């Protein structure tokens, strides 16, 4: 786990990325650079390709079948579509959080240790395990809530806690990039606030790319913003610039709420 | 159109003749639907009650554990009961592993191409093949081609082929009931597909898979046609209460076949013994079905995703 330090400098670079679902083209020549260690928000109306772009970054699209990708996605300088890339290694360092919290039907601590145990076998001692669980749960600000019931089934937690757990589950693998697909859309206002606080807390240690439908959220938590429309990346810049002085007419109309 | 204010308040929200007509037709529908549902239950209850009534005089513990005597007209059904256990166990030993593994492959790994579609079609059609056709296949394949002769293993193999689709379909359904989000959660921490299946998918679908296996058992236990030409025998000398009376290379008795024989080909058969045999067979099958049902209900209650 010594490579963790280098990992944190991983950015994502898309070169001329296009993607088709069957004959429908969902991404058109997307080229951009997502800076390491900051939170980048991905905004745009439904069906504009936000989630597709996000899922390209750890090749989750491929499970759907009938998907064709063209161009390159570089994570830490390595094209993840190269033939020698192992999806298993890739997903260790590029983790994803989904719209609906999806904890595994195991205990809270088993959820946290799940990834490590897949990779390292069962060589962890009990005290190591406890340490890993505590540090991951502390990092997502869940430790105090659940420290007395680590053996409880994770599916019994509140949605907000489940979502935090789903983020915590990725951390023991020392990921470089966290991809989040509308992580707050299943949560109420309070839960959303808690997740946003947590994201701010993670800023700097991970490269975070977050898809959101919520303009307010994008402006609150993201350092940079990417605006997409109909499979095109229209604009990418510092959040304040995208919201206050958009360069493109379409961005301006969207952030002003003329469509969405 | 009259202004709403014109309607006297008394008439508000009162069913018009048109609404009453719709309610009447709903009542008719409910009656028909519930009668149809009752019609499912009544025959089963009637059969069971009738069976128990007529079987009662012959139904003793002796009847279960004793061997047939006096040309079947006295004694019990022990060799047939044990024989059925043989057939069921052996066919399951063959069909369950193959069926479950095939189900896993078809649901989790197979890509959607023409070969997979052909296999899936074959599975569906296999379950629609009449059991007498399975029987003839068993004769050709196991009795003659593999030179196993008429034997318990030939009959069990035939039953195995027959229940294979039941197990495959149940396995596939149980696996596809596991939410996709569980799999995505696994893939996202770098699990291989096989690790995902082993650690998450199988533990959460084992109930459904077992249900399928148990239903296969009850189907195998009740069938007569596939075994009568491949390995069932009219009578075999067996010690009373012997748990392992047969070798798999020889023929064995079976409840279903025994029932068929004593009801058609044995003169002066006491009626109560006939019904008692039928009752034991029915209880055998129903018991397995009930286990499957209980299992399904309990697992459904346990999993709250």
Structure summarized in a few sentences:
By secondary structure, chain A is of the alpha/beta class. Chain A has a domain at 4-105 and 180-255: Rossmann fold (3-Layer(aba) Sandwich).
What does this structure look like?
By secondary structure, chain A is an alpha/beta fold. Chain A has a domain at 4-105 and 180-255: P-loop containing nucleotide triphosphate hydrolases (Rossmann fold, 3-Layer(aba) Sandwich). Helices cover 37% and strands 25% of the residues of chain A. In chain A, the strands form 2 sheets. In chain A, strands 6-7-8-3-9-10 form a 6-stranded mixed β-sheet, with helices on both faces. In chain A, helix 8 links the parallel strand 7 (177-181) and strand 8. In chain A, helix 7 packs parallel to helix 8 (189-202). Chain A is globular and about 55 Å long. Chain A starts with a helix and ends in a 5-residue tail after the last helix. In chain A, 45% of the residues are buried. Residues 1-8 of chain A have low confidence and may be disordered. By secondary structure, chain B is mostly helical. Chain B has 2 domains: 16-55; 61-302, MetI-like fold (Orthogonal Bundle), CATH 1.10.3720.10. Chain B is built from 12 helices and 2 strands, in the order H-H-E-E-H-H-H-H-H-H-H-H-H-H. Chain B has helices at 17-55, 61-65, 78-109, 114-128, 131-145, 152-176, 180-187, 193-201, 206-222, 225-228, 255-264, 271-302, and strands spanning 68-69, 74-75. Chain B has a two-stranded antiparallel sheet with strand order 1-2. In chain B, strand 1 and strand 2 form a beta hairpin. In chain B, helix 4 (114-128) packs across helix 6 (152-176) and helix 11 (255-264) runs antiparallel to helix 12 (271-302). The radius of gyration of chain B is 26 Å and the shape is globular. Chain B starts with 16 loop residues before the first helix and ends with a helix. The model of chain B has no long low-confidence stretch (mean pLDDT 89). Chains A and B meet through helix 3, helix 4 and helix 7 of A and helix 7 and helix 8 of B.
């Amino acid at each position: 786990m010594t490579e963790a330090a280098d990992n944190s400098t991983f950015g994502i670079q898309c070169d001329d990325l296009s993607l088709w679902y069957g004959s429908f083209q969902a991404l058109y020549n997307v080229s951009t650079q997502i800076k390491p260690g900051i939170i980048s928000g991905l905004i745009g109306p439904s069906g504009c390709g936000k989630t597709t772009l996000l899922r390209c970054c750890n090749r989750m699209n491929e499970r759907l079948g009938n998907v064709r990708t063209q161009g390159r996605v570089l994570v830490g300088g390595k094209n993840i579509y190269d033939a020698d890339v192992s999806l298993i290694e890739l997903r260790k360092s590029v983790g994803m959080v989904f719209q609906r919290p999806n904890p595994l039907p195991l205990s809270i601590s088993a959820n946290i240790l799940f990834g490590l145990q897949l990779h390292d076998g069962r060589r962890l001692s009990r005290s190591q395990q406890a340490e890993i669980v505590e540090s991951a749960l502390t990092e997502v600000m869940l430790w105090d809530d659940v420290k007395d019931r680590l053996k409880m089934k994770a599916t019994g937690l509140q949605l907000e806690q489940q979502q935090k757990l789903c983020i915590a589950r990725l951390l023991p693998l020392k990921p470089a990039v966290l991809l989040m697909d509308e992580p707050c859309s299943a949560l109420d206002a309070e839960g959303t606030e808690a997740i946003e606080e947590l994201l701010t807390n993670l800023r700097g240690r991970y490269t975070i790319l977050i898809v959101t439908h919520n303009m307010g959220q994008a402006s609150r938590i993201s350092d940079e913003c990417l605006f997409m429309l109909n499979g095109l990346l229209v604009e990418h810049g510092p959040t304040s610039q995208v919201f206050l002085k958009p360069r493109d007419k379409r961005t301006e109309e969207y952030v002003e709420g003329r469509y969405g | 159109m009259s202004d709403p204010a014109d309607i006297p308040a008394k008439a508000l929200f009162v069913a018009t003749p048109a609404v009453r007509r719709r309610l009447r037709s709903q009542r008719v529908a409910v009656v028909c639907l519930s009668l149809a549902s009752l019609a499912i239950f009544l025959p089963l209850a009637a059969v069971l009650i009738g069976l128990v009534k007529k079987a009662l005089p012959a139904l003793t513990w002796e009847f279960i554990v004793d061997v047939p005597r006096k040309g079947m007209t006295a004694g019990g059904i022990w060799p047939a009961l044990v024989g059925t256990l043989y057939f069921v166990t052996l066919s399951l030993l063959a069909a369950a592993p193959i069926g479950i593994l095939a189900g896993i492959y078809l649901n989790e790994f197979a890509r959607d191409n023409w070969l997979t579609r052909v296999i899936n079609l074959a599975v569906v059609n296999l379950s629609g093949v009449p059991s007498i056709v399975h029987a003839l296949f068993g004769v050709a394949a196991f009795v003659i081609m593999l030179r196993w002769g008429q034997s318990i293993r030939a009959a069990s193999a035939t039953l195995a082929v027959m229940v294979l689709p039941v197990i495959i379909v149940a396995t596939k359904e149980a696996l596809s009931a596991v939410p996709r989000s569980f799999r995505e959660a696994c893939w996202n921490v770098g699990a291989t597909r096989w690790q995902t299946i082993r650690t998450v998918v199988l533990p959460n679908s084992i109930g459904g898979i077992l249900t399928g296996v148990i239903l296969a058992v009850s189907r195998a236990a009740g069938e007569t046609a596939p075994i009568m030409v491949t390995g069932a025998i009219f009578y075999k000398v067996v010690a009373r209460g012997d748990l392992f009376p047969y070798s798999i290379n020889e023929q064995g008795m079976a409840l279903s076949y025994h029932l068929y024989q004593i009801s058609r080909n044995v003169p002066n058969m006491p009626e109560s013994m006939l019904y008692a045999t039928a009752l034991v067979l029915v209880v055998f099958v129903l018991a397995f079905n009930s286990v499957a049902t209980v299992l399904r209900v309990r697992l459904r209650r346990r999993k709250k995703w």
